[in-house]
Design a protein that fits this description.
Elements (H helix, E strand, L loop, with lengths): L1 H12 L6 H10 L3 E4 L3 E5 L5 E5 L7 H17 L1
Antiparallel strand pairs: 1-2, 2-3
Length: 79
Amino acid sequence: MVHDEDLLDRMRRHPVGWRYAELARMLRRSGFAESARGSHRTWRHPAGISVTLVDRPGDVLALYVRKVVAAVTRAREAE
């Protein structure tokens, strides 16, 4: 989807200021499913790619945004 590509590009260029819900939406739309819940949530893709995020109020650390961008990119390459 063009919108998803634009959003992923914005995340790549500006990894600050994103919320957990936005990252979760991107992962879900890219084929990931949440497999572990708690303060740390693990998302897994059928291609064997996983990423763990912290669900907390406020903005997510840039480290986690970069992890999501890398995981989504690898998942798209695996398709």
